[in-house]
Amino acid sequence: MSALSGKTALVTGGSRGIGRAISERLAREGARVGVHYGRDETAAKETMASIEAVGGQAFTVPARLGGPGDAEALWTAFDAQADGLDILVNNVGTVGRRERIAQVTEADFDHVFAVNTKAPFFLTQLGLSRLRDGGRIINTSTSQTRGTAKTELIAYAMTKGAIDVFTRTLAKELGPRGITVNAVAPGAVDTDMNAGWLRGEANAEAQAAVRAMSPLGRIADATDIGDIVAFLASNDSRWVTGQWIDATGGALL
Fold first, then answer.
1. What's the domain range around 184?
2. What is the number of domains present in the chain?
3. Torsion sign over Cα 195, 196, 202, 203
4. Burial class of residue 201 in the structure, from the number of CB atoms within 10 Å of its CB (0-12 exposed, 13-18 middle, 19+ buried)
5. Is 156 considered catalytic here?
6. CATH of the domain at 14
7. Residue 139 domain flag
8. Nearest of 82, 115, 117, 76 to residue 9 by alpha carbon
């Protein structure tokens, strides 16, 4: 029997990049995975198809996140296809506009906080009645909250700092139910979101710089993060809660 057989998971932003890798890995471990997407239905269906092609189970969950009523809409879509939840992965997020403090507008600030902080907060709040005892919550953080500060990512890093606090506090509240809550903090990962500066011959210098950050001497693939999340979703991680898991390949050493 696989580690997550009989479990139901929801992965927000589960159709692309790190989210897709998480969805596919949880399904490979036996979970039935709700692949959430906000806009890209094609990508979500491709992820579902890739899971089903190797014998896994998945369904898509459409819902925009960040606005009033969005969390309720997501759960309505989820409830139509699943009865209860065992694993919640709050992965959806946006970097927003890469700007230093002088250039950040109120609209920019509100948008990145709405997607990265408000959405997972209220999604989790409404999901607790669906999450079974002994369940798992895994939040996506970033190395930016504890690593070298990047001035052009100030608003983004602040949203994830809030997620770190959310993780620790929620772990304490949900412990009596046997629910663990942890945050995974990637560094630079080779995904479509980073393709503009991390892929291709034109970005050879950036690639070399990212490789040099890790003692392992390579750039992370999305599956590297998906594998860590799968561990945190499993019973093997039952004594780990409230933790910020460095998923940078040692880049912060």
1. 8-247
2. 1
3. negative
4. exposed
5. yes
6. 3.40.50.720
7. yes
8. 82
Structural domain includes residue 2: no
Distance (Å) of CA 100 to CA 105, 157, 211: 10, 12, 26
Task: Answer whether residue 100 is part of any domain.
Answer: yes
**Cβ neighbours for 21, distance < 8 A, ≥ 6 positions apart:** 221, 222, 223, 225, 226
Cβ contact 185:143 at 8 Å: yes
Contact residues for 159 (Cβ-Cβ < 8 A; gap 6+)? 93, 112, 113, 116, 117
User: What's the one-letter identity of residue 30?
Assistant: G
Tell me the sheet residues that pair with 36. 61
Tally of CB atoms within 10 A around 32? 20
Q: Say if CB 116 and CB 93 are below 8 A apart.
A: yes
Both structure tokens of 137: 């919550």
Q: Looking at residue 148, what is its pLDDT?
A: 81
- d(CA 33, CA 171) in angstroms, rounded, equals 23
The 3-state DSSP class for residue 31 equals coil
Quick: pLDDT tens for 101-136.
999 999 999 999 999 999 999 999 999 999 999 999
- Which single residue is written with the structure tokens 């906000």? 38
Q: Which of 59, 156, 166, 244 is catalytic?
A: 156
**What span, in angstroms and rounded, lies between the C-alpha atoms of 146 and 245?**
11
The pTM of the full predicted model, rounded to 2 decimals, is 0.96
- Is the pLDDT at 173 greater than 90, yes or no? yes
Residue 1, in any domain of the structure = no
Is the C-alpha dihedral spanning 186, 132, 37, 75 positive or negative?
negative
